[in-house]
Amino acid sequence: MMRLSVSRPEKLYSTPITDIRNTVGNVPMEWYQDYPHIGYNLDGKKIFKPIRNKDELDEFLDKMENPDYWRTVHDKTTASDIRLTDEQVDLVHRLQKGQFGDVNFNEYEPSVDFFTNEVMIHPVTNRPQDKRSFIPSLIEKEKVSKLVHAIKMGWIKPRKPKETTPQYYDLWAKEDPNAILGRHKMHVPAPKMRLPGHEESYNPPPEYLLTEEERLVWEQQDAEDRKLPFLPQKHSCLRAVPAFSRFIHERFERCLDLYLCPRQRKMRVNVNPEDLIPKLPKPKDLQPFPTTMSLVYRGHTSLVRSISASPTGQWLVSGSDDFTVRFWEVNTGRCMKTLEVGGAVKSVAWNPNPAVCLVAVERTVLLLNPSLGDRLVVSSTDQLITAYEPPEEDKEQAVTWALSEGLEHNMGHRLTLTHPKAVKQVVWHGKGDYLSSVMPDNSSNLQVLIHQVSKRRTQNPFRKNKGLVQCVSFHPLRPYFFVATQRYVRVYNLIKQELTKKLMTNCKWISSMAIHPGGDNLICGSYDCRLAWFDLDLSTKPYKMLRHHKKALRGVAYHRNYPLFASGADDGSVIVCHGMVYNDLLQNPLIVPVKVLKGHQITHDLGVLDVTFHPTQPWVFSSGADTTIRLFT
Amino acid sequence: MSQLQTRFFTDNKKYSVDDVPFSIPAASEVQELSNVINKLLEAKNDCLVCQCDLKRVLCVLQEDVVEIEYVERFTAPQPEECMMHDDWISSVEADSEWILTGSYDKTARIWSLEGKAVMTVAGHTDVVKDVAWVRRDGLTSLLLTASLDQTILLWEWNSERNKLKARHCCRGHAGSVDTIATDPTRTKVTGEEEEVEEPPSRPRKKQKTEQLGLTRTPLMTLSGHNEAVSSVLWLDSEEICSASWDHTIRLWDAETGSVKTTLTGSKVFNHISYSPLCRRLASGSTDRHVRLWDPRSKDGSLVLLSLTSHSGWVTAVKWAPSHEHQLVSGSLDNLVKLWDTRSCKTPLYDVSAHEDKVLCVDWTDSRLMLSGGADNKLYTYRYTACETDAGA
Predict the structure, then answer these.
(1) How much is the ipTM here?
(2) Spatial contact of B44 and B36, defined as CB atoms under 8 Å apart
(3) Among A117, A359, A559, A572, which residue carries the largest CB count within 10 Å?
(4) HSE of B79, CA atoms in CB hemisphere, 13 A
(5) What is the arithmetic mean of pLDDT over B4-18?
(6) Distance from CA of A298 to the nearest CA of B (A)
(7) Going by C-beta distance under 8 Å and a sequence separation of 6 or more, which residues neighbour residue B225?
């Protein structure tokens, strides 16, 4: 630290005569810590470190005793103390002040212009003028002509004159006056206090004064239950009115009300419920569909469990609990044939291909030839059945196949398949050779059997029992097999022999199932009044759930050509719906209920037991517990 | 009570009245209108014997003056005979002397007009669906029966000796034969089949001529319908008309076998009938309407008129042979209705003799109406103009 206030000492110490200079350059002196020298002088000789370094005490003593201590600086390179001369100190002072180091330098010398500011008549140089300085530039001319042309053509708009009027604008012009902006718009004024009425009067009419009983009641009530927070009192004059003792209390409660009671505007969305319903086409634009009951087929004496129409649409077969199968002519309602089968008929199915008709009776499945229609077909069907030749090795099969002969053959029986258990449903494959029968049984894996008629073979496709099988169906086009158990529909691939899909129906108990002729959609009726439509491409959950029936559904059916499906239920009604399936995969099926068909009477809490469509016309047949079959057209 | 200006007019010269407007009560019924007309006729011509029953048919409101056309009233058709069959009657055809019926008991029967059973034609192995007279040479007649057993049988019947002989069996249909028709010259037969066997094949229409031999094959097959053919008839000797379940009526050229015109409806056709008098085709279909068509119209599917009063399918229609406005229709609602085509909302008469479905109707030249149905009864009705017509 330099103490500049100290007066300058007279005595001057000159620097040592010998000019010791270190030649190592600007390197850190720590590099020489381990050496006895600290560098080399001009002659190349080592500069040795002083024998003894000054320690702190030496430093302190020096500081106290040496009057020139303040102007002494330590030179690390030579490890010597240098006493600065007066000139050097002066230079340091000047530099500290930000002045020039040179004492003699005058920074404010008078300036002398290099060129005079007066305009002279002669040029500074004697160089002759360039030609371009007096000939107009061609480039400029070209540019100007371009601009002129652009202005003429209107490509460049001359600059608009600046508007001199001041520019104001309405800050709130765009603001919707009804819009709620900011908190101030949300302000809800505090509810006003009720104005005093007659009760509060100091001299109320007598009817406002409480009687003795009322007053007792008032006193016994809780403060919250009281109709009035005070007792009306009558005073002779205003002067006689005493001070209101509850005044502070009342003000306080008022403040509490204002402070604690939340005041908020309730935003209620006004939506018309009609707008939320999707737009459906009107039923009358979706014609044709069955609308009226046209024919009643009478003849059965017990409830008709099952019906099926022939592929040509001329005949109808029905199976009933009166142990008969009847064949009907569709367009007149004539019963053409009655066959006694010796058991309640649970299911009938007309073969989609030839004239074979199939009937399932208790524990047996009968193949019948109704002998209706073309003689040639009838005889060829018989030939097909009799042409069977048994294979050499007889395999053990789950059912026994027996050929009917004699009287039974004349009646139309052709083959009898005796099952080990009661058969509930039979269904044909679309080609007409395979058929499947269902024997619901909760405890065994022998529930579904697939038979091949031409080879008289039977196989059990399932090894495990996955639950009580309700109904089965073949896919109309591809080798898939649908099995409906109590709550799920499983789709099996028959070629790969694996489970393809499992549909969750969300129903308690499935009763019936139908596959769309396109094969990608499926409907399921259930005993809990629901009809579930599945789009197999979409999801394993129902695409639509229809709850139109009041009671349990018994039968569902799709039409083969028209976009129609029908469901029959225990409430005695058949509901026909329009179910359009589009080829476009992006468009979901359109489902519109179009007609409720009534006609069946409810007997023993059973209404319609089965529905089926005419194969070519938009007609629906329904069979009921009232022993009739009805045709709706 | 408000009064209406009315003007009466008629086509019948015998009963014409002066063309002056009358003022009558607005709530006049048919009976009152008839009385007015009868009074007028009496005033003009006092020799008219008794009151002529007239029926208002047409009301046209025209500039305050209601124009009322009146026609002479016929007496209601009275059931005359009831012929009991053993089973449902599927078809009936009558000529001037005999009635031929086909029944579901696999037989056809011949009756006299008085209702006496003359002959039972048994030979089919299945239900007889249609019958037709072919021709008559004195006492010998030829008749045809078509059946569900895919055959048509041609019979020769001698009415004097009451002898019946099966002459030919016509085979060729691949389904039940539901309808047959003979051409006006009584030489050709057209049969119609109901069902198709192989899916790609079409129902065919067979036509046969008189050839010798027991079994005969079709002369020509008319194919084009997609579904069962329900009714067929000859318009004249060159044209065949057929109605089908595929919602079309087709007109065929009998020489070439090609389709000339197609009339497209919206419902399944049950039965058609053609009247040469008014050149209209009447069709009964699987709804409540009897529709009238013009088979000559080139643009196809024009329904000229629909007669609506039935409440069930119309199973049979038949034009009157001698009156161009009248036709009779039978329906599944057990009713036979007599229509005048000039009033399309209400029929002239409802005949409710049947207790079950009416399946067939016919009309003879001698104004005898016939209807048969599922109650096994064939009714004949005497239906003639009133006595004044005959007396005057």
Answers:
(1) 0.77
(2) no
(3) A359
(4) 15
(5) 65
(6) 12
(7) B202, B203, B205, B242, B244, B246, B248, B250
